[in-house]
Amino acid sequence: MKKGSNLPNQITIARIVVIPAVMFFILYPMAYGEWIAAAVFLLAAATDGLDGYLARAYEQVTVFGQFLDPLADKLLVSAALISLVSLGDLSPWIAVIIIGREFAVTALRLVAADRAEVIPAGSLGKIKTVAQVTAITLFIMPGEVIPGPIGEAYFAFKWTLMIIATALTVYSGLDYFRKAQTKLYT
After folding, report:
1. What is the pLDDT of residues 124-161, one digit of tens each?
2. Is the dihedral of CA 146, 149, 152, 156 positive or negative?
3. What is the pLDDT of residue 23?
4. Contact 8, 52 (CB under 8 A)
5. Vertex 21, ends 153 and 146: CA angle to 5°?
6. DSSP H helical segments within the chain, as ranges?
7. Is the CB of residue 87 less than 8 Å from the CB of residue 93?
8. What is the pTM of this model?
9. Could you tell me which residues come within 8 angstroms of residue 63 by beta carbon, excluding any fewer than 6 positions away?
């Protein structure tokens, strides 16, 4: 593993740096602010795959990057969820479940790291992330611009997707803890 700054780590840091902009455009009403917030959030979330791909492709995987990358993801998702809750657009219990799972998995990763163990993220975690990012993006975008039955269907769709994302969050967290138990306590 390499040390120091590299392009993948700079991309990860950029993901953290844009978090205040995402929150600003979600929280402060202005023309097209929600659209800008959704675009910046989605772009920042998409860099997660890019930084990981570049780190592996160019053999620039670092301890710093392995620590910072999941932290950046959690901060971005948490900031968006907290902003949506503060506006009353999202139920607090959903944010608590998603953020709580992320803290619990992070704590488990630290325990594993202390024991020189790595518990890899599985495909379920990646599916969970895509579901979360998609649902959060839909919640950030203005839904009230769609009138009538189409708007009602959009509202139902985004809530259904958020419930699915929350269920996947719980399930993937339980799966991660099961893998950790097998690895750490057997």
Report:
1. 988 999 999 999 999 999 877 678 888 889 999 999 99
2. negative
3. 98
4. yes
5. 20
6. 7-17, 19-27, 33-57, 63-86, 92-114, 123-140, 148-184
7. no
8. 0.91
9. 1, 3
Give per-residue burial for 94-131: e unless 16+ CB within 10 Å, then b. Answer: bbebbbebbeebeebbeebeeeeeebebeeebeebbeb
Q: Which DSSP letter does residue 18 get?
A: T
- Which residue type is seen at 138? L
Question: Which amino acid belongs to residue 97?
Answer: I
Residue 146, C-beta contacts closer than 8 angstroms, at least 6 positions apart: 154
Fold type of domain 7-184:
Four Helix Bundle (Hemerythrin (Met), subunit A) (1.20.120)
Question: Residue type for 186, please?
Answer: T
Strand, helix or coil for residue 61: coil
Contacts of 36 (CB under 8 A, 6+ apart): 25
Place of tokens 């790291």: 113
The two tokens of residue 76 are 């971005």
